[in-house]
Amino acid sequence: MRKLIGIATAAATVLTLGLAGVSTAQGAQRWHSPSHHKSHPPATYVPPPIQWGQCSDPDLVDFGAQCGSLIVPLDYAHPTGKKISLAVSRVLHHTPDSQYQGVMLVNPGGPGGSGLIYSIIGDAWVPNHGGDSYDWIGFDPRGVGSSQPSLACDGTFFNGPRPPYEPTTRDILNQWVSKSKAYAKACTHADGEELFNHVKTTDTIADMESLRIALGQRRLNFYGFSYGTYLASVYMTLHPDRVRRFVLDSTVDPRGVWYRDNQAQDIAFQTTFKAYLAYLAQYSDYFDVGDTQKEVEDTFLATEADLNSHPIDGTFGGDELLDVFTSAGYYVYGWVDIGTAYSEYLHGAGSDDLVNMYTDANPGTPGSDNGYAMYLGTQCTDTQWPQSQQQLNRDNAFLNKFAYFFTWANAWFNGPCAYWKYPSSRPVQVTGRHVHVPILMIDETLDPATPYSGSLYVRSIFPTASLIEGVGGTTHAGSLSGVACTDDRIVAYLETGAVPTRLSGSRSDLQCPPVPAPVPDAVSSQSATPQGADNLRARVLARLRAGIEDAALHG
Asked: Cβ contacts of residue 188 below 8 Å, gap of 6+?
């Protein structure tokens, strides 16, 4: 998936501006209890055992992982019908069997994020051997990555330059509407496209149940980032007796799935984007792109407009520049690299680094849109997306008045949903009233992709949940980044189930420092790599973090 003005009131402000001020095509969201939901029939499917063998990914091999396939129904309403396969990996526990705590599933977010590599989190990322008593399980959700079929529609969709995001003319608007319609249509011609009828969140929840059964577990442990927290919330609602230890990092607000959540992102992102511009100004001696936040912003907007008119090499325009900066809005990890590449371009030292940041993430090759296709497949069908382009235009024009960095970029990212050809469902009404084990939540105050208000809300409806707040931070899904205050409590929870004491009121239960912004002349000292980690772990650490970033950027 994709806060400020006074932290105490920011949550209310975000949703008030994003919802009360915008007349959505959905009107008031209708919520339905699980018993009325038609997408999760009684569990009548028992999967065959997973046949474990050699992994093809060198990093999984280096960490001693095993890989296999989970066979599940295309449609759980017809469990004896057509089957698909999910790619699964595992790293077995390193403690005596007497200390074994079961399997720990990991999802990096999205929807559409590949999770196969995340079985190595216990070894590569959790400090102080805090994950050693679990079998860590990574998996590619249905339709994603190495699962079969793996769905993609048009790998060239993100090729630049694209029309300017803001439709200041009728021609620009028509170009984006045409692109949205074309992508939605392309998905109806994708190989294995019938799977698009069965990629709702509830389908992945059913797959998690199949995985639990195949692994011989009575209860699940789960670590979810971003959209993975929504999987966690829905799973805990539908299967509360199957819940053991669940970690939710950057929690989706289930009240806004998915249109209203995207509106809240637009507003929250305005704050984090400005925070990054202020950072560039703070280190003006290093970046030299402006001495104040306003100077940096004015230069950026002028550069974006110039690139829209004169794209670099005819391929890298203003949209592509904004997309590169978008990752800085989500995460502090790349702040130095992005600022340096941008500064080099502005000062005539070359554009290769800046352009490569975009093309490396969007190669435009067949199948490279897998994450995006699966993001849409879920977001467009979990619930009804507005179908009126006129209504969408009015909503986004209103939001753009005060959230001008991200509103139209986000609107067109989700544009195909208005023209999606596959039927939608109704969201599960998330509740934690039947969950009786401690749940650990983590979020930063100014998280733009899943605004902090969502974490406070989910905490309020899960009476056993405790929330750790990275105070004042802008990083999304940033746990296990080397902040001892947070990471030590995660380890304690994994080892013993202990969570911070729950406080009264709508607030966090433990306040910790946020993931620190890197200092330009000492960036190596800001690394989230555990002290003493070897080169393999350092490389894999970067890959794990990049995977979560990519999942969030496509969600």
From this structure: 421
For residue 266, CA distances in Å to 18, 385, 400 come to 8, 17, 8
Which is nearest to 441 in space by CA: 482, 477, 395, 484?
477
For residue 19, name the pLDDT band (cuts at 50, 70, 90): very low
The region that residue 136 occupies, defined by phi over 0 for left and psi between -120 and 50 for alpha, beta otherwise, is: beta
Q: Are strands 135-139 and 83-91 parallel, antiparallel or unpaired?
A: antiparallel
3-class SS at 403? coil
The torsion angles phi and psi of 79, rounded to 5 degrees, stand at -65, -20
CA proximity to 414, closest of 460, 379, 448, 389: 379
Cα→Cα distances 486→38, 209, 464, Å:
39, 29, 18
484, 530 contact by CB (below 8 A): no
What are the tens digits of pLDDT across the range 167-221?
999 999 999 999 999 999 999 999 999 999 999 999 999 999 999 999 999 999 9
The per-residue pLDDT for 23 is 33
The answer to whether the CB of 452 falls within 8 A of the CB of 443 is yes
Peptide bond into 136 cis (omega under 30): no
pLDDT digits (tens, 9 = 90+) for 41-98: 445 799 999 999 999 999 999 999 999 999 999 999 999 999 999 999 999 999 999 9
| Residue of 258, 248, 140 whose CA lies nearest to 493 | 248
Rounded CA-CA distance 152/186 in Å is 9
Q: Which of 282, 369, 273 is nearest to 322 (CA)?
A: 273
SS3 track for 468-482:
EEECCCCCCCCCCCC
Model's pTM, two decimal places? 0.91
Cα separation, 35 vs 344, in Å, equals 57
CB 121 within 8 A of CB 480: yes
